[in-house]
Specification:
673 residues, alpha+beta, Immunoglobulin-like, C8orf32 fold, Jelly Rolls, 3 domains, nine-stranded mixed sheet, eight-stranded mixed sheet
């Protein structure tokens, strides 16, 4: 970790504001001069790439202004306005339709000042977008669940073709530039250059008049970072003349990030640099910023909240029953993206959420906290970065959250982690994106600490599949299916099946069946416990296919397993990989298959082999028997106990699954009587 005492500007990637020159772009010849090339590269130079980022430039400028100026932020006793300009230039080679649509995300504290985009065709023709070609959508984007004021600007490049260049520039004003800053050096496309320029007044070269260090710390992740090029006295355009310093970091010829399937979030591996205020020495400074300014002032417990808590717990006989009752109530409050001014950082008050009977994750968390605290149960808000977005670096306190949950501690000091946003998550458990991760628990005194959330096991997350195959009809085979879902599978399929039409449910049933039964006809289905968060989901359905016995000479071949998982194992086709294997969660799937043969028609010549095998916490077993009464019964279990497996074990894992596939493809051999 490095500290730059003068680097006080928080350029937030979250507060990314890009500027373009009024409506003019820098010429391509100027860009070639910057890159020190005569011509831009061709497809042959990057044969595997769909496109090439020619330039990715981020310019951040902080200027001293008067106290009464618009959109200024006080640092010590000096006022600043911060603007950021981004310019992205990309040359398209192939699969160009993937890159026709562009999205720009604006965090709640960012104000768009200008935006321009254009297409440059190979013959030099330029097509610029008009103002009406840009469409702003509020409450959209990757982190809209936590920040409902998050904005997404969408546009489509016109007239794209192979070897054309697409480009956009935008400028934003950052109203709260002291929270997050991130330079994303690497992406899934190769880059010729990525530049990050930071212009700050010399005020930040030393502690301010208030005696505080107003500098910045930064840390490079997954890459090394050279010292910046420093230029002095680059701007005297401020209202108050104050010499400035410009710092420039530059990276050249950055390879594309090529993820493996079934791995952790890209964020954990791509090259990037994060910046934070120098005063953020610990996570308590982060919580002081958020809990003190945005959350605690809203945590007002009114008589209405207290009365509601008493009403909901009136018949409860223990503290745990009270906690569960309040959790279930808030769990049923509809999830809706709502904001309250200040960019979605600030939740509504518990009373407001109670009255409007809806809210986002922060709103539902604060309502649950208010209800619990009103009857003297200890509860704390918890800031989360879900596992699909990355991980919290415990030694580098920064603002990197996209979700909020609640931690409750009983009088017996038992901890209960709850996500009231998850409609179907059972009391005492968490969705898999919140499991086994570091989170920030906020205390009433504005301090905080990093804690590790609980993790479920392969026993907790299970599918129990029961198959009855009736072959007594000479024309068709009839399958009766019963599936019981537990844990994460229960949550996934309840969300999948909720509020679906008859035809949509039929489609879901068919999607569960192996590809070899594409002509399956679903005859009927039933669903139990769909609307209950307490009971496990049960799905039953019956389908018919033409006779599935395959005749080869004197032999009859049969495979009654209609739930082959081999579609899910296609990621194992690669001979090697670069990153650790990461399953979303540990799980187990058990299958009991009962096959009823027609009487006096077939004799069992041979059965598939029984098998028990294990590799790096992955276990498979199969036992198949013929009971001599026209019934064949197969029991199969596969479990994944370790959700993360080191890349060095990939070959063993691949060989294991290849072996399982071979066993699963074995067929029952029957002879005619």
């Amino acid at each position: 970790m490095k500290t730059i005492l003068f680097l006080v500007l928080s350029v937030s990637l979250s507060f990314l504001f890009l500027s373009c020159a009024s409506s003019s772009f820098e010429s391509m010849d100027t860009l070639k001069d910057q890159l020190k090339i005569k011509e831009f590269p061709e497809q042959k130079d990057y044969p595997e790439a769909d496109a090439l980022v020619l330039s990715d430039i981020h310019d951040i400028a902080m200027r001293v202004e008067s106290k009464n100026a618009i959109n200024v932020v006080a640092v010590g006793n000096v006022y600043f306005r911060t603007e950021q300009t981004n310019r992205i230039v990309v040359k398209l080679f192939k699969n160009i339709d993937k890159y026709a649509d562009e999205r720009i995300y604006l965090w709640p504290s960012e104000e768009l000042l200008s935006l321009h985009a254009r297409t440059i065709k190979p013959d030099g023709t330029i097509i610029e977008l008009r103002d009406e070609d840009f469409h702003t959508i509020k409450g959209a984007g990757p982190d809209a669940a936590f920040y409902p004021d998050f904005k997404e600007i969408r546009f489509t490049y016109p007239g794209i073709e192979k070897n054309c260049i697409v480009e956009y520039e935008y400028k934003i004003n950052v109203k709260d530039p002291f929270v997050r800053d991130k330079w994303e050096i690497q992406s899934r496309l190769p880059k010729l250059q990525s530049i990050y320029r930071l212009q700050v007044p010399v005020y930040f070269l030393k502690p301010g008049d208030d005696g505080k260090d107003h500098g910045w710390k930064f840390k490079a992740f997954n890459c090394s970072l050279k010292s910046p090029v420093v230029e002095n006295n680059v701007d005297v355009s401020s209202t108050y003349s104050l010499n400035t310093v410009r710092l420039t970091w530059e990276q050249k010829d950055i390879p594309a990030f090529e993820p493996d399937p079934v791995m952790e979030a890209d964020e954990n591996y791509v090259k990037n640099v994060k910046f934070i205020p120098a005063e953020w020495e610990s996570w308590s400074e982060v919580s002081k910023y958020y809990y003190g300014h945005y959350f605690k002032p809203q945590l007002v417990i009114t008589d209405e909240i207290t009365n509601k808590a008493k009403e909901l717990t009136r018949d409860c006989r223990s503290e745990i029953e009270k906690i569960e009752s309040l959790y279930k109530y808030v769990q049923c409050v509809p999830y809706v993206d709502l904001s309250l001014g200040l960019g979605g950082y600030k939740p509504h008050t518990p009373n407001e959420v109670l009255k409007q009977n809806s809210g986002d994750c922060k709103d539902k968390a604060i309502l649950l906290l208010g209800l619990l605290k009103s009857i003297n149960i200890e509860a704390k808000p918890v800031l989360v970065l879900t596992s699909d977005k990355g991980l919290i670096h415990t030694s580098f306190p920064n603002w990197t959250f996209n979700h909020m949950i609640v931690k409750v501690t009983s009088h017996e000091k038992a901890d209960y982690w709850m996500d009231p946003t998850s409609k179907y998550c059972k009391f005492g458990s968490l969705p898999y994106g919140c499991q086994n991760i570091n989170v920030l628990v906020l205390n009433d005194d504005k301090t905080s600490q990093i804690e590790l959330t609980p993790v479920s096991t392969f026993i907790d997350n299970s599918e129990a599949v029961f198959v009855k195959l009736d072959l007594t009809n000479p024309d068709s085979a009839y399958f009766d299916i019963g599936i019981k879902f537990k844990g994460t599978f229960d949550i996934i399929y309840k969300n999948e099946l909720a509020e679906k039409t008859h035809d949509e449910i039929i489609k879901i049933c068919k999607s569960l069946i192996s590809d070899k039964y594409l002509n399956a006809e679903i005859l009927h289905y039933s669903i139990n416990n769909l609307d209950s968060a307490n009971a496990d989901l049960k799905l039953n359905f019956r389908f018919r296919v033409p006779n599935i016995i395959e005749k080869q000479a004197e032999l009859n071949l049969l495979n009654g397993d209609v739930f082959s998982q081999q579609r899910e194992w296609q990621w194992l086709s690669r001979e090697s990989r670069h990153y650790d294997i990461k399953f979303n969660f540990p799980y187990s799937i058990s299958k009991v298959i009962e096959i009823i043969l027609p009487e006096n028609k077939y004799a069992v010549k041979s059965l598939p082999s029984n098998m028990i095998s294990t590799e790096q916490g992955i276990n498979f077993s199969r036992d198949i028997n013929f009971n001599g009464n026209n019934r064949i019964v197969e029991n199969e279990i596969i479990s994944i106990a370790n959700s993360k497996i080191g890349v060095q074990f990939y070959k063993g894992v691949k060989d294991f699954f290849d072996k399982v596939k071979r066993y699963q493809n074995e067929r029952i051999i029957l002879t005619s009587k």
